[in-house]
Amino acid sequence: MPKSPHLFACCICCLLLAGCLGVEETHTIRPSLTVGVVVDEADLNDQSFNASAWAGAKKAEKELGVKVLSAESREPADYVRNLRSLAKQDYGLVFAIGFNMQDAIRQVASEYPDTKFVIIDGVAPDLKNTASIQFRENEPSFLAGVLAAGMSKHNTIGFVGGQHGPVLDRFEYAYKAGALLQRPGIKVLTQYAETWSDPGKGKELALLQYGQKADVILQAAGKTGMGVIDAVRTQPQGRYVIGTDSNQDGLEQGKVLTSILKRLDVVVFDTIRQVRDGHFTPGVHSLGLKEQAMSLTEMDYTRQDVPPDVLSAVGRYAEEIKTGMLQVPATPDEYAEFLKARL
Phi, psi (5° rounding) for residue 7? Predict the structure, then answer.
């Protein structure tokens, strides 16, 4: 039976704490471990999801003495080919970065029982050599909705997503729920680019929403989201974008209100460390605010723009989520129930 996901979460928290305290860790180097990282069409330099995962792998290469190799996918057909190629080369641990690789990892993992496969944001097959790391994106997205609604002057905010799916549902519906709880009746514009790799499409959708008086847009679209950040540069004061996955606040200082941090770098690093040390926990691992695996940024460039009562609301709801007092919707059905119960 898989071990408790809480054990996995605790490992992450310990790593984060060690980093905060400046504790230097020592390890027995085992250079025999080789790690492969397969990413989707958005490539390694998307300044978002893939880049964060790759940063964790490169840190492991530097600090843990492992060998890492990336495999970029030009199209979905490459997913199986890349996963299988790494497994054939006796890579001990292979990451599939993104839920689009669910079918591919299901096809390949059973063929190579001696290779550990970990999918990020997707569902892994129920095998002893596979694990699924999922994030509760709905938790910080709810806080982002509270923040966006509190900053809106025209009672309108926006959301630009990459591709429809369960992960983006968690972003979208929690964002809407937080916004409506903070400001009942606020209008939330929602559009999907249906691609993770087209900044031009992201910019087009963002400009449409700004044209409809959206004051804040949450982008959850990978490399496509870079176009949303590009669009905000020409907007008047008081218009913002919210970034995702990595800290994107500095990409357009004063215009990126905050970012939803998804600590893929920490999770990838810690997973590599566990496997290198002979520990691998199959099954599903769910991580969120409580585990310090997700959060909003400190808003270094914009905090002074946020009214104190809005900051207070964000902090209050964050604590309620961590303690379980507030259950944040993650699906359309849960969103509908949330509205009935709360509004």
Answer: -65, -45
**Using the 8-state DSSP alphabet, how is residue 327 labeled?**
P
Domain ranges of the chain: 5-135+263-287, 138-262+307-342
What's the chain's Rg over C-alpha atoms? 20
In sequence order, what are the beta bridge partners of 72? 39
Class of domain 5-135+263-287: alpha beta
Token couple for 200: 């031009």
Q: What stretch of H or E contains 316?
A: helix 308-323
Burial label for 283, CB within 10 Å (0-12, 13-18, 19+), is middle
| Tens digit of each residue's pLDDT (9 = 90 or more) over 147-167 | 999 999 999 999 999 999 999
User: Can you identify the CATH homologous superfamily of domain 138-262+307-342?
Assistant: Response regulator (3.40.50.2300)
Given a cut of 90, whether residue 3 has pLDDT beyond it is: no
Residue 272 one-letter amino acid:
I
Q: Which residues contact 48 (CB under 8 A, 6 or more apart)?
A: 42, 222, 223, 225, 226, 243, 244, 245, 246, 248
Query: Could you please report the per-residue DSSP string of 270-292?
Result: HHHHHHHTT----EEEEE-TTTT
> How does the average pLDDT of the chain come out, rounded?
91
Q: What is the pLDDT of residues 217-255, one digit of tens each?
A: 999 999 999 999 999 999 999 999 999 999 999 999 999
21-30 as b/e, with b when 16 or more CB fall inside 10 Å?
eeeeeeeeee
Grouping H, G, I as helix, E, B as strand and the rest as coil, residue 36 is strand
Residues 23-67: pLDDT tens digits?
A: 344 444 445 699 999 998 877 888 888 999 999 999 999 999 999
Domains 5-135+263-287 and 138-262+307-342 share a fold: yes
Please name the residue that has the structure tokens 């963002």: 206
185: burial class by Cβ within 10 Å (0-12, 13-18, 19+)? exposed
Neighbour tally for 122: CB within 10 Å: 23
